[in-house]
Write a structure and sequence with these properties.
This protein is an alpha+beta fold and 773 residues long. Helix content is 15%, strand content 34%.
């Protein structure tokens, strides 16, 4: 059944499967060391070019962080292990500093084994990067028994790269494998196993074929080169970071302190200079293409073997150009431009139609993200989608049938569903919903759009992976992941509550959507303390109708089990709600977001089953920043707060992210001052627990040391826990266990305990927060 949407409708209720007295308690150790509690979770799902197989990465039964390559055969329904990572990449394999940093930015730093792979265009081989080596896996090879071992493995061909190979790729026609080594672009001719170095000027501050730090961290672009569809050329980015300030940061480990020198483009500081190059696989002369000064090279795509496009975003991030390049003459033509009075959000919705019949483009020009069809000369043909909701993502185009498939939360803000639109725009206002179950669908279509892989979950359903036809009907399970006696969550199932969803109005009348878990064994005649968890930043939504397999998701269930009401509200500024909802944060952070979270706290206090004196707040990263701002502005409403890895001074954060919302510090000095935690510390009177990894290369540890010093200068007590060697997400299961146990203990003492204000200095009264914004 699909839930109709009404502003204050509660779309899910409390669910207890049987008596909690018979259940096994969920523990923090179980969350982080007991295997994946959400069940078997295939990663990196990919459909073979001919649509006959689905490959994926799966964790080992005895090591949830080490991944192997598996295959599901669609024809016979069989599943088999293709490559055991232990056979070719022993645990403890060497990883370069560059690759380690890349994995950190791609959020795979905690995993080992096979982290990535690619299909060859003919569907007969797979490219596997493992450690410093590259392998080609032959799917058609006869399986042979390994000598002295009962395991069976398909033959692997090791490719000689001459050293560490970064970002390896198979060319579109399958004749070459390309990679970056020592800041230069290389190819291997697979016909004769010969290596060719295509660029030779890489080194020092010059990088060829790589994506710069900002592209990887903030543009969702991890690659720096792009093959032409016919294997005839490679377009690549060359960037020079000579003008980017060289900074030293300290990574404090348990037994040493590493001094890291890094060219870090902080807000208001120079970025890299960049240009595009074109080179053939034979490595002849590079032809250079200027793309502009002080810009972001956002995307690069080949329209066809003769035409290359790139997207250029200006430094202010208020104008995005789509530029076409004639590969023969290098003539550039701007096909279209999108502008914004606030900022442009990048997307991956550019899709070229076959036979030169134009392209599809995604834009927020109406205030909501929608899809548009253009001719190849940049003339708008029509809107494909329209309405007061966001299209999240273009999934697939069936040009022959005239159908476009896209992902959206059109029916419910906390969902992710699949919809079909007519390519000619005739159903722009009335798309057909394809996905059937309410909840979250993460989807990947086959090349011909005849079916898709669907990873589905809802609050009562752990992630299930299925092959689904383009009519939304399930064809087969890849991983049904039943919540039965064999499921890792089964012993705890009786204590798991399903959340309720609803909304409250913001000051401007827009609806703020929330998710709430009531405690196990909830009694409406009692009053409960609150664990208020949020993110609040402009890149993530948290009040989602999904099962949730992030550490915070499982910890939410744990805290509900411990007797807390667990509340999450998505404030204005968060995504997937249109520009009217997101844009109020422009040029000042921590204002509207805090107002909305306080509105949520006031709503909680109006509920008869909430103890209004025992509401605690918790967030990490942007959520950690939100904690410091909430305690500074609204301590009178909050018993205590936990801030993990908070940004406290936005001038310390990178240029693209920060300037997108605040502009440059030299142009918005007041905005930076009022967006920093320090402007509001005189109002911080509730107990604070501050936590930070001491090797965090995302939100630098300096953010917390500045906060420590400012609090000490004001003689404000606080609790502190730092983690030697800890990165932004904390680096080991044991760190996470320690951190979350400490968070629970802090909440039990300062929120649930008999006197939530017990940590105030003797004789102190809660301070009145600043009244002016």
């Amino acid at each position: 059944m699909r839930f109709p949407y009404f502003p204050a409708l509660l779309v899910a209720g409390l669910s207890l499967l049987s008596s909690p007295l018979m259940a096994e308690q969920l523990t923090i150790e179980r969350i982080f060391t007991g295997g994946n509690l959400s069940g078997p979770s295939p990663r990196a799902l990919k459909i073979s070019p001919d649509g006959s197989r689905v490959t994926f990465l799966r964790a080992k039964a005895d090591d949830q962080n080490r991944l192997d390559l598996w295959e599901y055969n669609i024809k016979d329904g069989s599943t088999r292990l293709l490559v055991d990572s232990n056979d070719i990449a022993p645990q403890g394999e060497t990883v370069t500093d560059e690759e380690r940093a890349r994995r950190e930015r791609e959020r795979t730093a905690n995993f080992s084994g096979i982290l990535d792979y690619q299909w060859s265009p003919d569907g007969k081989r797979l490219l596997l990067p493992l450690g410093d080596a590259l392998y080609l896996f032959d799917l058609d090879a006869t399986l042979v028994a390994k000598e002295g071992n009962s395991k069976r493995a398909a033959p692997l061909r090791r490719l000689e790269t001459g050293g560490a190979a970064i970002d390896p790729r198979i060319s579109p026609k399958g004749r070459f494998v390309s990679f970056v080594r020592d800041q230069n672009l290389w190819v291997i001719d697979l016909a004769n196993d010969t290596r060719h170095q295509l660029t030779r000027d890489g080194g020092g501050t010059v990088h060829n074929g790589e994506a710069e730090f900002i592209a990887q961290e903030e543009m969702d672009r991890s690659r720096g080169y792009w093959w032409a569809p016919d294997d005839g050329a490679i377009a690549f980015q060359q960037y020079n970071e000579a003008q980017v300030p060289l900074v030293r940061r300290f990574e404090v480990q348990a037994e040493r302190t590493d001094v890291i020198e890094q060219r870090y483009p902080a807000a208001g500081q120079p970025n890299v200079t960049t240009r595009l190059g074109l080179v053939t696989p034979a490595g002849k002369e590079v032809r250079w293409i200027p793309v502009g000064e002080d810009i972001y090279l956002a995307r690069v795509d080949w329209a066809n073997p003769k035409q290359l496009t790139y997207q250029r975003l200006d430094r202010a991030q208020q104008k995005l150009d789509l530029v076409m390049i004639d590969a023969a003459t290098l003539k550039q033509t701007t096909l279209l431009s999108d502008t914004s009075a606030t900022w442009i959000n990048l997307n991956d919705d550019l899709r070229f139609l076959p036979n030169g019949k134009g392209f599809i483009w995604g834009s927020e020009r109406t205030g909501f993200h929608h899809l548009y069809r253009y001719d190849m000369d940049g003339t708008l043909v029509q809107a494909i989608s329209a309405g007061d909701y966001n299209v999240d993502k273009l999934l697939a185009v069936d040009a022959k049938a005239g159908i476009v498939y896209a992902e959206s939360n059109r029916d419910f803000v906390g969902d992710q569903q699949v919809y079909a639109y007519a390519l000619d725009g005739s159903t722009a206002l009335k798309p057909r919903r394809i996905s059937e179950r309410d909840g979250t669908h993460t989807v990947q279509f086959a090349r011909d759009a005849s079916f898709y892989i669907d990873t589905f979950s809802d609050p009562a359903t752990p992630p299930q992976v299925a092959i689904v036809g383009n009519d939304g009907k399930r064809i087969a399970w890849i991983e049904e992941n039943k919540l039965d006696a064999n499921h890792p969550m089964w012993p705890n199932r009786q204590l798991i509550t399903t959340p309720e969803f609803g909304s409250i109005p913001a000051a401007d009348g827009q609806l703020l959507h929330y998710r709430i878990y009531k405690p196990t064994g909830f009694d409406p005649t009692k009053k409960y303390p609150v664990f208020d968890y949020y993110y609040g930043g402009p890149t993530a939504q948290r009040a989602l109708r999904n099962f949730g397999d992030r550490p915070d998701d499982m910890f939410n269930l744990y805290m509900a089990q411990q007797g807390y009401v667990v509340f999450t509200l998505d404030n204005r500024g968060t995504p997937r709600r249109g520009r009217q909802f997101s844009d109020p944060i422009f040029h000042q952070l921590g204002a509207i977001e805090v107002d909305d979270q306080v509105a949520g706290i006031h709503w909680l206090k109006s509920q008869s089953w909430i103890d209004g004196e025992r509401i605690g707040v918790y967030g990490r990263s942007y959520g950690g920043y939100m904690t410091t701002m909430l305690l500074g502005k609204a301590s009178n409403d909050i018993a205590a707060g936990v801030a993990v890895a908070p940004v406290t001074d936005w001038s310390l954060y990178d240029s693209m992210y920060t300037e997108r919302y605040l502009g440059r510090p030299q142009d918005n000095k007041a905005g930076y001052v009022r967006s920093a935690t320090f402007a509001w510390l005189d109002g911080l009177s509730s107990p604070l627990l501050l936590m930070h990894g001491m090797a965090d290369d995302n939100v630098l540890f300096t953010n917390s040391t500045k906060l420590m010093a400012a609090l000490q200068e004001r003689d404000v007590p606080f609790e502190l826990m730092t983690y030697p060697g800890g990165k932004h997400g904390l680096s080991t299961p044991q760190m996470k266990i320690h951190a979350f146990k400490l968070i629970e203990d802090f909440f039990n003492r300062k929120v649930k305990g008999p006197n939530p204000q017990e940590a105030l200095p003797r004789g102190a009264e809660p301070m009145v927060p600043p009244t002016s914004e």
